[in-house]
Automatic annotation (TrEMBL):
Keywords: Methyltransferase, S-adenosyl-L-methionine, Transferase. Residues 21-321 form the Histidine-specific methyltransferase SAM-dependent domain. Belongs to the methyltransferase superfamily. EgtD family. One of its GO terms (biological process) is ergothioneine biosynthetic process. It comes from the Bacteria. This is Histidine N-alpha-methyltransferase. The keyword tRNA processing does not apply. Pathway: Amino-acid biosynthesis; ergothioneine biosynthesis. GO terms for molecular function: L-histidine N(alpha)-methyltransferase activity; protein methyltransferase activity. The keyword Methyltransferase applies. It catalyses: L-histidine + 3 S-adenosyl-L-methionine = hercynine + 3 S-adenosyl-L-homocysteine + 3 H(+). Its EC number is 2.1.1.44. InterPro entries: EgtD, EgtD_Actinobacteria, EgtD_Methyltrsf_superfamily, MeTrfase_dom, MeTrfase_EgtD-like, SAM-dependent_MTases_sf.
Amino acid sequence: TEPTVQLIDHLDRGHLRQALERDVREGLAGTPKHLPPKWFYDAAGSELFARITRLPEYYPARRETAILREHAADIAALARADTLVELGSGTSEKTVLLLDALVAAGLRAYLPVDVDAVTLRRAAGRLAARYPGLAVRAVCADFERHLALLPREGRRLVAFLGGTIGNLAPDAREVFFKDLRAVLDPGDTLLLGADLVKDTERLVAAYADAAGVTAAFNRNVLHVINRELGADFDPGAFDHVAAYDAANEWIEMRLRARRDMRVRIPALGMVVAFAAGEEMRTEISAKFRPAGLSRELAAAGFTVRRWFLDPSGDFSVVLAAA
Ligand code: AVJ
């Protein structure tokens, strides 16, 4: 049987609900309509994302895994961490690669942070069972809002993997890096996974897989809004769209209405009209160049210690010191 893991909850139902209401009200009143990607991740959405990471087209997960497998010991030696804090930990599948090396080098605590309490609890239990000497404390929180609440104990390594940093628009990213830097102490480090700019075809294929898993993941946000806010979205009436914006160097996921629709959202007292062909943005996933990301990190007060690129140059992991 798995040990019980302490769950620190900064996202009580009330706050979560309020944040969703605000995001949906603002996003659906906007032109163009848009929703933040964080609402993809209920239990079903986290599961769909885990399936995405196993798709042949979705190279980022495999590339990052290869980097971590190759360089975990280097990372552990550079970070000399007592505590690993992982932002957006999800199923923590890749984390074992880091934990094996970090625990061998003296790590004492692991704090996964995620918005999806179900997936978080399950992952934390699995890792607590695998590393008996490690204190595992799961933190249910929104990494954009609750950085200041993260426990401060020992030398910390903050891991933000998978390329999730790309979900933040440049202005939000700047705020995030500054806020994160402000809660770190000298000696603490950041391990950041970032997907790199590459040819458009491969980028788009990674977000428009042949099996349609990404399409289901994209539509899941409509199921979440239906369940939580009593809305009557017909998810099947929206097409999945993935497009590369070459000027901004980011992938955009959208949901395109197949026909004219009126969607009722009783909890918000809203009726939202969609015109046939209208597109609603559900995610940006920015792609980076090491030089540009180095500049952003430096501007927030981080010092880059090392870049790790996979042999094909598709994905990068950077270790930066506070
Ligand atoms: C989990 C944010 C890293 O942006 O590539 C995968 C999410 N969206 N396929 C990404 C995602 C569509 C993913 N991140």
